[in-house]
Amino acid sequence: MSAHGSGASSTTQDTGVGRLLERFLAMKDFTPAAVAEAAEWWSADEVARGFAETAALEEERSATARLDQDALDRFCRIWADSGYDDRWDVHYVLFDSCTLDDAGEARDALLGLIRTLGLELVDAPPGAATGEVWVRTDPRIDAELERWS
Predict the structure, then answer these.
(1) Which terminus of the chain has fewer Cβ atoms in its 10 Å neighbourhood, N or C?
(2) What's the first-to-final CA gap in the chain, in angstroms?
(3) Listed residue (137, 148, 149, 146) closest to 89, CA to CA
(4) What is the DSSP string of 52-91?
(5) Domain 69-148 class in CATH
(6) How far apart are CA 113 and CA 51, in angstroms?
(7) What is the pLDDT of residues 41-90, one digit of tens each?
(8) Which uninterrupted H or E stretch holds 95?
(9) What is the CA radius of gyration of the chain?
(10) Which residues, listed in sequence order, are joined to residue 122 by a DSSP beta bridge?
């Protein structure tokens, strides 16, 4: 038996994780009351506080993850007019085959949208046109682009 095999088993038994996981097979069963009942070492108040703190953090993350709809629409419009997803679905390629002069001020506006939306701008590969803009894909943008394609 490997060291990992015996350590993992011992750790699971020591922490009681197995006991907890057996009871929570569905998310609907994972409630503060059920956790407090299964984990005697925490009081019902401690469990409720933990759930409330987690919910507050999740709400805060969701609020900051929301995208400016106007900026999102403008990004998608530019993608629909001049862009595509690379063959690996890792990047959005915008202003494909355009020079800086061809792309002009629209490219500058796009760069501002990328910052506003918190997207990751990456270097275009060698040989790409000077005006091309490569951006790492983002699941929030992907969901919106499906409506645009």
Answers:
(1) N
(2) 53
(3) 137
(4) HHHHHHHHHHHHHH---HHHHHHHHHHHHHH-EE-TTSSE
(5) alpha beta
(6) 36
(7) 778 888 788 778 877 766 665 554 567 899 999 999 999 999 999 999 99
(8) none
(9) 24
(10) 134
